[in-house]
Amino acid sequence: MLNFRRKFLKVLGFSYISSLLLPYNFLFSASKKIVNPDLSEEQKKIMLNESTERPFSSPLNNEKRKGFYHCANCGAKLFASNAKFDSGTGWPSFTESLPGAFKTKIDYSFGMQRTEYHCASCGVHHGHVFNDGPGTQKKRFCNNGLCLFFKPES
Ligand SMILES: [Zn+2]
């Protein structure tokens, strides 16, 4: 009887935890919308499954012109070129985003607690934001280059 009760509690505990986690993850993935039919498989993997491109693989690491960085999926304007800096990490890095460009959530994967951010317009993943950046705000937006496209100022 005791054994049965223990098993029952285990099952109950499991379903309680999953009922806390699953709807959120489900809703979160459901809120990501691919609107650009030309995205590559690699881009979709990063945007939908929150994977990360290889460091130093993005040509945007070396982009130094004036302009704006847009969401490669929906085209929303996300960063101004004056917020870009060379973090040495191998990913395009920014001290701040344009107001309202992103929403964040806490990401516990790989045994770390990190702040994930995603496009406020289409919901796709872009990168993680850390508190070790330069300047007064101390923010470092570490963005996958594949999630961005750059439009130089004309
Ligand atoms: Zn977007």
Can you characterise this structure?
With 154 residues, the protein is an alpha+beta fold. The protein has one domain (31-152): Metal Binding Protein, Guanine Nucleotide Exchange Factor, Chain A (Beta Complex). It is 25% helix and 26% strand. It contains two helices and nine strands; from the N terminus they run ααβββββββββ. The protein has helices at 2-30, 41-49, and strands spanning 67-71, 77-80, 84-85, 93-94, 102-107, 114-119, 125-130, 140-143, 148-152. The strands form two sheets. The chain has a six-stranded antiparallel β-sheet with strand order 3-4-8-7-6-5. It starts with a helix and ends with a strand. 23% of the residues are buried. Mean pLDDT is 88; it is low at 11-19. The site of zinc ion has 8 residues, from loops.
Counting DSSP E segments of at least 2 residues, the number of strands comes to 9
The total tally of domains equals 1
Main beta-sheet annotation:
6 strands, antiparallel
C-alpha end-to-end distance: 76 Å
The ligands found in this model are: zinc ion
**CATH domain topology:** Metal Binding Protein, Guanine Nucleotide Exchange Factor, Chain A
The residue fraction in helices comes out at: 10-25%
CATH 4th-level superfamily: Peptide methionine sulfoxide reductase
Give the helix/strand class. Answer: alpha+beta
Strand order of the largest sheet: 3-4-8-7-6-5
Strand content: 25-35%
What is the averaged pLDDT score?
A: 88
Query: What is the N-to-C succession of helices and strands?
Result: HHEEEEEEEEE
Discrete helix count: 2
Radius of gyration: 19 Å
**Reported CATH architecture:** Beta Complex
What overall geometry do the principal axes of the alpha carbons give? globular
